[in-house]
Amino acid sequence: MEQAGSRVVVIDVLRACSTMIYALSQGCKVIHPCDTVSKAKDLFRQKVKSLGKDGVLLGGERGGVRVRGFHLGNSPEEYSSDAVRGRAVIFTTTNCTRNLTAVRSPKEVIICSFVNLHTVVEYLSKEDADVLLALSGTDGQMSLEDAVCGGMLINMLSDRREVVLSDSARTAHVLYLHYRRNIRQALLDSSHGKRLLELGFKDDIGFCAGVGKYEIIPRHVRGRVVC
Questions:
Q1: pTM for this structure?
Q2: Which string of DSSP letters, residue by residue, matches 149-210?
Q3: CATH fold of 7-15+98-208, please?
């Protein structure tokens, strides 16, 4: 992807962006996103040498479930203060972390989900750079929940500054308008949401549907996600 000079807003509602936002709100020191499990394990071994075993955790999923041998999966509330405060997290997921590592030459990369949407919109409303929404999707396909989140961002931002929408952005906005009275239903209707229900992650859906719960803006800077 080529995003030179633009602010790229990466959205993965279920669940990676929601999880990273929560982890950093709970005192996680830094998150290192990796696009593959093998890279995550290699980086973990490197970090243990400098930070010690108590200073770094392995987190992430494949197919929605925790990677075997990892400390944490991809459920946001696993990343509680007791688990992550003061620690680094090496993090890999099926979709989002791969997209993060593919971003090229942006002005800035922002991590966004419903849970910090108000704060992201307030920040973007004060800036004049182009904004590109990078919806993580699921297995290379569009995800309903990510599109609705992007549409909500568009709706809120258009009240604060002039916006010019692409056809895909207009589609996301229309989807948001359909679900605006029941955001949680968008997650339940999505194919990924249904898959998480089958796997027993009902609580994650409720968590990720909460709009504006955290007033932080994580950024992806030189291979690290920090606030």
A1: 0.96
A2: HHHHHHHHHHTTS-----HHHHHHHHHHHHHTT-HHHHHHHSHHHHHHHHTT-HHHHHHHT-
A3: putative 2-phosphosulfolactate phosphatase (3.90.1560)
